[in-house]
Every structure is written in C-alpha cells, then in structure tokens.
Amino acid sequence: MSSAADIPLLPGEELVTSAAEITHLCPFSGALHGVLYVTNYKIYFREQVDNNRVATTVETPLGLISRVDKIGGQSSRGENSYGLELHCKDMRNLRFGFSTRSSNRGQVCDAIMDAAYPLSASTAPAGGAATGSTGGAAAVPALRNVFAFSFRQTFPEDGWSVYNAQAELERQKLPKTWRISKANENYALCDTYPSVIAVPSSVNDDFLARVADFRSRGRLPILSWIHPDNHATITRCSQPRVGVAGKRSPEDEAMLQHIIDANGKVGTLCIMDARPRLSAMANHAKGAGFENEAVYQNTELVFLNIGNIHAMRESLKKLKDMCFPTIDNNKWLSNLEASRWLENICLLLAGTSRIVDLIERSGTSVLVHCSDGWDRTSQLCSLSMMMLDPYYRTIKGFEVLIEKEWLSIGHKFGQRHGHAGSEQRAPIFVQFLDAVWQISQQFPGAFEFNERMLIAIADHCYSCLYGTFLYNSEAIRVREDIKQRTQSLWSMINSAPYGEFTNPLYAPSIQEHVLSPIASLRKLRVWTAYHLRWNPRMQKQNFIELRNMQLAEMREALKSMVDNLQRRLDGNVQA
Questions:
Q1: Most confident segment among 125-134, 274-283, 323-332
Q2: 409 and 265 in one domain?
Q3: Residue 191 CA to chain centroid, in angstroms?
Q4: Which residues does 238 contact at the CB level (< 8 Å), separation at least 6?
Q5: 8 Å CB contact between 374 and 472
Q6: Residue 428 included in any domain
Q7: Looking at residue 542, what is its pLDDT?
Q8: For 405-434, b where at least 16 C-beta lie within 10 A, e where not — what string?
Q9: Annotated binding site for substrate, which residues?
C-alpha cells in the first residue's frame, strides 16, 4: 500500500490517492513501470526498480493539466490499451497505462479533474465570472481544491508588498495635469479595474462615470505610463459602444481631448486598436466598434492586425504539436510557419515598437485598446512600458509591471488559464513572456532577470501553487482575501539565492535607455528552454546554467569590492 512517505511533499500537501501497476508510456525512454500518486497539488509517478539504478520520476502540478482523456475500457485488449492521457499546458502530454485488473482509474481521474478545473461553474450565478460575462466582482465563482489555499511554506520576503498602486504612480512623478482618483475605490465604476486609477486632472469623478457608460465593460481610458520628460502618455481602455448606428458620447469624446491637453506639447492622440480592421468592424453588430476620427477630434486611428484569443490558442496548439513528442526535422520550418506563433509575436513587437516610437521620438500620447482591453491591450502596454522604462527591466520592476498591467487591470487569468473549461482559454500571458524573452535575446545586458525567472512565472501562472494568478480581477482577489490566505509567487522569487533568477550580463549603467528591438521574423526564434524543454535532445547543458549562476555571484562579489573601495576613497578624501 502506497503512502505519503513514498513521495516528496510540500508544506500542506497531502496524498489523495494512488494506483499501482502503472506504466508510464514515455516517448523518449519507453515504457516505465511504477506507481502513480495524486496529491492535492500534483501527480507524481515513480518508477519501480529492482537494482541500484536511480528510479525515474515524472511529476506535474494538477493546475497545468488542460485535458484528461480516458483511453480504452477494462475490457480492452492489448498492452497499455487502458489508461489516461493528460494534456498539459506546458507543452507536453503524459500517458499512463493502467492494469485492466485495477479499479483505480476512475478515482485517479476524478482527483485530477477536481484540481484541473477548480472554478465551480455550478456555484456561480448566471452571467457571473465563471461564464465570462464580466470577469469582475459581480459574481465570485467558487474555487474548489486549489492548493494555494493549503500551501504552508513561508519565505523571508513578502511578495505581496512588491506592488502598491499609489506608490508606483508617484514613482512616475505625475505632473499637475494628471491626478490619482479613487472613484473606483469600491469597484463600482468598473469591477475589472483597480481601486486606484490615474486620470486627467481636468475631469471630475462624476464625469468618469459617464465615460465608463460608453466603454465596453465600463473600462474607461486610464493612465498606464507617462514619459518623464515630454509627458507623452500610454493610456488604455476598451472599445467604444458606438454600434451600427454610430452612437456618440460627448463625454467620451471630451475624455480623449482631456488626455491630449494633459500632454501640453503635442496636440494629437494616436489610438492604437490592436485588432484587425475587419474584426473591429464586426463588433459594430454587437453594439461596439471603434472611434470615428471625424468626431474624435485630433486623433489618428491605427489598426495593428493582432489576432484574437482563439487564433492564439490555435497557434500554440500547432506549435505544441510540432515540438512534442517528436520533432520532424524535414518539416520543422514549414510547421513553424504554419503555426504562425513567431508571426504573431512579430506583429505584437511591431505594434509595440510603433507605440514606443510615438512616445519617445514624437512625444505623441497613445491610447491602446482591443475589444475589452484585457488581452492584447495588456500585452501592448506592458511591452511598451518595459521598452521605455528601465525600471520594468529589473526583477522587482518586472513584478510590478505584471501586477499593474495584468493583474490589477483585469486580465482574466482564471478563464484564460483554463480553470473553468476550454472556450475562454488562451496563452495571452505566456505569449507576452515569450515576447519578453525575444527582446532579451536582442538586448542581453538590458534585463536584470534571466529566462529561468520567465519560465518560473510561466509555470506558476498555471500551477495554482501561489495565489498571485488566481481569479479574474483585483476586486475578486480583494474580496477573497487572497493576500492573507495564500503566498505570492514574488515571495519565492525574491527569496531565492542570488544568481538563480539574475542575469549575469546585466549592466544597468550601460542599458538605461529605450530599447528598440527589430520586429522581424529573421530575428525571432523558438524559445527552446520553454517550448522544447521536455525533449531531452533539445535541453540546454546544465553547465551553462551553472556557469551563469557563478558569473552572477562573481559579479556581485566584484560589485561589493568596488563599493568598499569607493567608500575607502571617499573617507580618505574627507580626511
């Protein structure tokens, strides 16, 4: 009889069920015979060996499982024709054969499904967050069996203290033309927006409510970032509710003029609509659409032709199919082209570069939106801010960027990451991380963090080990008291040994400038360390990672020596 003592457990982790006589059908090592364990956090397979050979183990957090397929039935004939296939969100599939004499498959499958789909749609009111109507605080779906609420490990650093909305806006040194508003303090203005927002000083809170009425989901234009010198801004919102009849809102039109006036130097506003023009036009039939330049004075409307969540989901599926379990070298380039994954990232970087160029070189303010303003808009705004502001390229600055532009402004992590069925799933956030990695390859000394940190974030945004990425909005996380009930991913990252997530090539004194990556397919490549890591033939050599950590430690030691010498020199000068 298997017990919890047979497997490594995290604080708070418990064994739920196990099954013996299991065959793991590994595409690289062949059939491995052993025991499969299911805890309240992960599945864990341990090979049974009869000699001194080290047993092979395979594990994955339950939150990373996107689909569970039952293979065959107990009457099935043939070796390993009865079992489970687990489709994972981290680019791999795991297949386990069960003995036809076993009755454990149903129990194992149920335990996996409970954690793989923790959003209980049955307990959410009609039109609530589980069905995707608002994604806000109006309806809070129940989270069942999520390990983050049981995880009992503590860390020296408190990751929940990394981000403070007011402090971050104050760091940007807002001029008098902008103010911090608490009109959304109770999330009544917009339940998918943060409680603290920045708006032009020339508008009052009653005016904001009328603007919100004309924007999809109430997501009115708010400030994301302001240039420290020319005061050009990045603002974001959702699409206007113009509809087929071309409805107008004097308040919404005036709001955009207030944003223009707050610049003080350039009297135009560029509206970056992330969608293809035809897609935006199709939204007219749904009562939404895009701004008419004839009525929105002093604006220029640009469509960036970035696909929707369904296109990105299909794109990643094709990429996964070509990367796992086998790679067809003869069709690698044609399959990569057919996936359109790098093409989609190229479009994203091209749109970002246009925003950065307008802000930095022309001093023109930019308003970004897509449909609801929580997917492509989050990608474009956060990438632009990272390219413009070196603070967001530090470890803590990058954490602040994710907290600000993704978590607090309402990217629907609960739905996009598949905690409640598949229709609303999309790899929008992972695509953003891939784009960050692509930029880091063009500017290897510009980022304090390394790709290990990007991969850790990519894994744990799905794993449900930390509370950081649970639910769809700040309002729900506040209501569910996530900061008190769970640990933050940033606690783990900021408590890690120096060098684990640090880029040894980071040179802040050299790299404090605006990044201008080349948005061309010839400069992009597949992120091997993430997308291909489960193929042993494609894995990086361990000595490279070890050498990077050693370089980071040496760099820190040398920096400490320089600081000590500088203090001694300063002391001699004063003497």
A1: 274-283
A2: yes
A3: 20
A4: 215, 216, 217, 219, 369, 370, 371, 372, 373, 374, 377
A5: no
A6: yes
A7: 56
A8: bbbbbbbbbbbbbbbbeeebbbbbbbbbbb
A9: 283-286, 308-309, 370-376
Average pLDDT over residues 94-113: 86
Sheet holding 269-273, edge to edge: 222-226, 233-236, 365-369, 269-273, 299-303
Determine the pLDDT at residue 126.
Answer: 30
Residues 322 and 466 grouped into a single domain: yes
DSSP string, 184-214: TTTS-S-TTS-S-EEEETTS-HHHHHHHHHT
Q: Look-up: residue for tokens 């990451």?
A: 417
Give helix then strand counts, H and E, for the chain: 19, 16
* Residue at token pair 């042993």: 536
Contacts of 401 (CB under 8 A, 6+ apart): 382, 385, 386, 392
Paired with 142 in beta bridges are 120
How far apart CA 11 and CA 9 sit, in angstroms, is 7
Q: pLDDT band for 409, please (50, 70, 90 cuts).
A: very high
Q: Are residues 208 and 171 in the same domain?
A: yes
pLDDT reading at 81 higher than 80: no
Q: Name the domain count of the chain.
A: 3
AA identity, residue 396: K
Q: What does the pLDDT look like over 147-156, one tens digit per residue? A: 999 999 999 9
Q: Is residue 122 part of a domain?
A: no
* Cis peptide bond N-terminal to 221, omega within 30: no
CATH number for 102: 2.30.29.30
Q: Do 305 and 242 have their domain in common?
A: yes
- Expressed in angstroms, the distance from the first to the final Cα of the chain is 75
484 with 416, same domain: the answer is yes
Asked if 256 and 108 sit in the same domain, the reply is: no
Instruction: Answer yes or no: do 100 and 164 share one domain.
Output: no
Number of Cα atoms under 13 Å in the Cβ half of residue 518 = 8
Beta strands in 115-204 (DSSP E): 119-120, 142-143, 178-181, 197-200
Q: Which residues span the domain enclosing 36? A: 4-116
H or E stretch covering 234: strand 233-236
How far apart CA 421 and CA 350 sit, in angstroms, is 32
Please identify every residue annotated as catalytic: 370
Instruction: Please say if the pLDDT value at position 2 is more than 90.
Output: no
| pLDDT class of 144 with cuts at 50, 70, 90 | low
Clarify whether residues 363 and 275 are in a common domain.
yes
Inside any domain, residue 151: no
Q: What does pTM read for this prediction?
A: 0.90
Tokens (6 digits) for 430: 């992972």
In a domain, 413, yes or no: yes
Token pair for residue 566?
Answer: 């500088």
